[in-house]
């Protein structure tokens, strides 16, 4: 009797591990595929215009000198995130980062994106 209980328990544990591995793998692939499937149009960096939008909308969380605060530092964000990712984060938000789709025009988001992406 005892043998069968142990057998069942190990069996269930084994199934659980197989289940976790099987469901864990696709999740990892999803993360890898998150790179957005579009291209942010090329435009000239307008640091002055971008800086002004940044001053009024972003410094509360990212700091006056992009050093970070409630949000991460953005001083070299261009070297870690693609332009498309920066654009998507600003437009759609992520975690504690609010979405700015409704508060900024497409042009303003592009101006910010192009500027941030140039900071390496
Ligand atoms: C209410 C606070 C807040 C405001 C305002 C805010 N952010 Fe953020 N931002 C965050 C947080 C928190 C994160 C980290 C999100 C995460 O961990 O997924 C973040 C992440 C980011 C990232 C990605 C950084 C990285 O290394 O992954 C970018 C780019 C960014 N913000 C740009 C901006 C811009 C541009 C503005 C102004 C239009 C702005 N943020 C305004 C809080 C804020």
TrEMBL record:
GO terms for molecular function: electron transfer activity; heme binding; iron ion binding. It holds the Pfam family Cytochrome_CBB3. Binds 1 heme c group covalently per subunit. Keywords: Electron transport, Heme, Iron, Metal-binding, Transport. Residues 45-120 form the Cytochrome c domain. Transmembrane segments: none annotated. InterPro entries: Cyt_c-like_dom, Cyt_c-like_dom_sf, Cyt_c_BACSU-c550-type, Cytochrome_c550/c551-like. Heme c binds at residues 58, 61-62, 97. One of its GO terms (cellular component) is membrane. It comes from the Bacteria. This is Cytochrome c-550.
